Automatic annotation (TrEMBL), chain A:
Belongs to the binding-protein-dependent transport system permease family. It comes from the Bacteria. It is a multi-pass membrane protein. It comes from Sporosarcina luteola. SUPFAM superfamilies: MetI-like. The keyword Magnesium does not apply. GO terms for cellular component: plasma membrane. This is Peptide ABC transporter permease. The chain crosses the membrane at residues 36-57, 101-124, 215-233, 268-289. GO terms for biological process: transmembrane transport. It is found in: Cell membrane. Residues 97-289 form the ABC transmembrane type-1 domain. Signal peptide: none annotated.
TrEMBL record, chain B:
One of its GO terms (cellular component) is plasma membrane. Keywords: Cell membrane, Membrane, Transmembrane, Transmembrane helix, Transport. Pfam families: BPD_transp_1, BPD_transp_1_N. Gene3D superfamilies: MetI-like. It is found in: Cell membrane. The keyword Transmembrane helix applies. PROSITE patterns: ABC_TM1. InterPro entries: BPD_transp_1_N, MetI-like, MetI-like_sf. GO terms for biological process: transmembrane transport. This is Peptide ABC transporter permease. Belongs to the binding-protein-dependent transport system permease family. Residues 97-308 form the ABC transmembrane type-1 domain.
Length: 303, 322
């Protein structure tokens, strides 16, 4: 006869099976929403083409200048024509998408980490520490962010991709910090935190290993939605000429050709595909992001 | 009430001081100063003479003395000399400020003109086809980056269809003061304003729609209905009074968004405003102008936030925390 009383480990395993993980909930939500599923598939197609394109396109040929072949309209050899240096626009588009997405991810993760740490500390301690940290944050939030980034990009010595990521991350964590802090303030009143404090667990351990897992769905939602925003800001800055350095083309580099009226009108194949690709990527990421957001809140779920 | 406004205004002072300090430090980190600007490319000035002038202007003093002088002048509206334009920065900015104010003002007006009716329709007739269309439009407005949208608008309406001028502030062949001048100004303004406004409606529509949906089921609305108030009046007299008030308060926050946007919009439509001046100056390394512009835009943002906070506290007393 089987033991009627399940032991504790089995009970926990049973409980875990009944209680789907956040990732599983997200997947169910996306599957239920046809548009979100379509967006996700389209996004995967775009990204895998971009990231796998080095297998098919010779990167050295992409950067080689060929003056006999400049400003060629789209043809069978150059699907999207060529630019001012006779380089293939389609190849540059793929390279740009790759760079823009990678940097978008890097900025999102880095800014997320800064915001998370700041918000957790402020919310966990509360009181005077919270007060001071929030006054500082309030001040940072009223700075004209875009202008400051442009100034920093111009005056930073040895400017490269990494400094750009650092500068952008330094200015895009404010909102996240405030969001995390307001949730952490609620969380710190709960019994499990008090119990941990009583047992003498160090504060950093409570913050990052006990509080953070309970806020993780909030963080995931916020990061998905800000990923799209960050890609938009990066390409925008590159478009203005204050983003990625010349050696690292992004989608914004291709669009910045459009600052010349002749190119806007007569050589549309250089900038228009990049502009549309950004648009499509933004819409897809945001649509998936909305589904993730719904999954995190049981009242909003469709599935 | 008065106490809150006073306290909130006082809070602005340390913010302004901190902002000016940061900008001063940045200005020090920028290559070149007032003297390199004024004597750039002057072969008669020997390094010794320049050093003497630096001493005379106090550029070798400790930083806090320099900061004190700089901020003292800046408060009086003196931001020094621009060396690429060879004229006082204040004159340079004064010539452009009108254009940016016009652009932002009309953008704000357009945003409210479009967003308020759309928000009300979406909130009142939830889940109808109109609501679904508005929600879809709003989703596009949220997701589309401003510079991509503005560029596509410029391409479509100015280049392909040729309805609007391809850039600039006004047709230079037209004399100032005539009716044609006003028409030309309006034509040059229309596309930049619409590009910014069509995308800028997101927050207002979203807020209004959600708030109306929340208010609809409240007790005071049920009471009004039970008393036999016509459906139209339930909205105009009861719900909208509550929902629209915070919208008025967001005006100040809107300024922050418009400032960031003006850099993109003015650059794409070659509109002669402060955002374009900022980009030109930073490309020419004309840092006296850059410093002055960051200071002005930063102050505008701080004052805008202050305005919003005050209006919001009048509208909603719960916000007036001690």
């Amino acid at each position: 006869m089987k033991n009627p009383v399940l032991d504790e480990k089995q009970l926990i395993a049973q409980e875990k099976l009944n209680n789907p993980s956040f990732m599983r909930t997200i997947w169910r939500e996306i599957k239920h929403d046809k548009m979100a599923l379509g967006s996700l598939i389209l996004l995967i197609i775009i990204l895998s083409t971009a990231y796998l394109s080095p297998l098919f396109i010779d990167n050295a040929a992409l950067t080689r200048v060929n003056f006999l072949n400049t400003w060629k309209p789209p043809s069978a050899t150059n699907w999207l024509g060529t630019d001012d240096g006779g380089r293939d626009v389609f190849g540059q588009l793929m390279l740009g998408a790759r760079n823009s997405f990678t940097i978008g991810i890097a900025v999102t993760v880095l800014a997320g980490l800064i915001g998370l740490t700041y918000g957790l500390i402020s919310g966990f301690y509360g009181g005077a520490i919270d007060n001071v940290m929030m006054r500082i944050l309030e001040f940072l939030m009223v700075l004209p962010t875009l202008m400051f980034i442009i100034v920093f990009v111009t005056i930073v010595p040895n400017y490269n991709v990494f400094t750009f990521i650092l500068i952008m991350s330094a200015f895009y964590w404010f909102g996240k910090a405030r969001l995390i802090r307001s949730r952490a303030l609620q969380e710190r009143e709960l019994d499990y935190i008090n119990a941990s404090k009583t047992l003498g667990t160090p504060s950093w351990k409570i913050m990052f290993f006990e509080m953070f897992p309970n806020l993780s769905s909030l963080v995931i939602v916020n990061m998905t939605l800000s990923l799209a925003g960050n890609i938009g800001i990066e390409t925008g800055l590159t478009f203005l000429g204050f983003g990625l350095p010349a050696g690292t083309p992004s989608l914004g580099t291709l669009i910045s050709f459009a600052r010349n009226p002749d190119i806007v009108q007569n050589k549309w194949w250089v900038w228009l595909p990049a502009a549309l690709l950004i648009l499509v990527m933004m819409l897809c990421i945001n649509y998936v992001g909305q589904a993730v957001k719904r999954a995190s809140d049981a009242r909003q779920r469709l599935a | 009430m008065l106490k809150f406004i006073l306290r909130r205004t006082l809070l602005m002072i340390p913010q302004l001081i901190l902002l000016s300090l940061i900008i001063f430090m940045l200005a020090k980190a920028m290559p070149g100063d007032a003297v390199t600007g004024a004597f750039m490319g002057n072969p008669d000035a020997t390094p010794e003479q320049i050093e003497k002038i630096r001493e005379k202007f106090g550029l070798n003093d400790p930083w806090y003395q320099q900061y004190g002088r700089w901020i003292g002048k800046a408060v009086k509206g003196d931001f020094g000399q621009s060396y690429t334009h060879q004229q006082p920065v204040t004159t340079l900015i004064a010539g452009r400020v009108e254009n940016t104010v016009l652009l932002s003002l009309f953008t704000a007006i357009m945003i409210y003109l479009m967003a308020i009716p759309l928000g009300i329709i979406a909130g009142r007739w939830t889940d109808t086809w109109a609501d679904k269309m508005i929600v879809t439009y709003n989703y596009f407005a949220f997701a589309t980056p401003l510079f991509v949208f503005a560029l596509l608008m410029l391409f479509l309406f100015s280049f392909v269809l040729g309805w609007f001028p391809i850039g600039g502030t006004v047709d230079i062949r037209i004399e100032t003061g005539t009716w044609d001048y006003v028409v030309s100004r309006a034509k040059h303004l229309f596309l930049p304003v619409m590009s910014a406004a069509l995308i800028g409606t997101y927050a207002t529509i979203q807020y209004l729609r959600n708030d109306i949906i929340d208010q609809k089921i409240k007790d005071y609305v049920k009471t009004a209905r039970a008393k036999g108030v016509p459906e139209g009046k339930v909205y105009t007299r009861h719900i909208l009074r509550n929902s629209l008030l915070p919208i008025a308060a967001f005006l100040g926050y809107e300024i922050t968004g418009l400032i960031g946007g003006s850099i993109f919009i003015e650059s794409i439509f070659s509109y002669q405003g402060l955002g374009q001046l900022f980009l030109q100056s930073i490309n020419l390394r004309d840092f006296t102008v850059v410093t002055a512009l960051v200071m002005i835009f930063g102050t505008a943002t701080i004052v805008g936030t202050l305005l919003s906070d005050i209006i919001l506290s009048i509208v909603d007393p719960r916000i007036r925390i001690e």
